[in-house]
Design brief:
The protein is mainly beta. The chain is built from one helix and four strands. Strands 1-2 form a two-stranded antiparallel ribbon. The protein is elongated and about 55 Å long.
């Protein structure tokens, strides 16, 4: 029985393996993402576009479980 080790730090955003499952060598068990810096593309209202400038820091609510707020 082996324990998988991530190649780097991050947040698990997808996991397909189940406890006790046998998997072949090299099979991807999940995906890890660095959520410390994100680029988000989203539609905004014209009024908000007048207020925001490129590079403005904003707070975004992501539909994760558990919910997470990224600043």
């Amino acid at each position: 029985r082996l324990s998988p080790v991530a190649p780097g730090a991050g947040t698990i955003v997808e996991w397909s393996a189940r406890p006790g499952e046998w998997t072949p060598a090299g099979k991807r068990l999940g995906r890890i993402a660095d959520l410390s810096s994100l680029r988000i593309s989203a539609p905004i209202t014209p009024q908000l576009a007048q207020i925001l400038a490129a590079g403005t820091r904003i707070r975004v609510r992501l539909p994760l479980h558990p919910p997470k707020v990224v600043q």
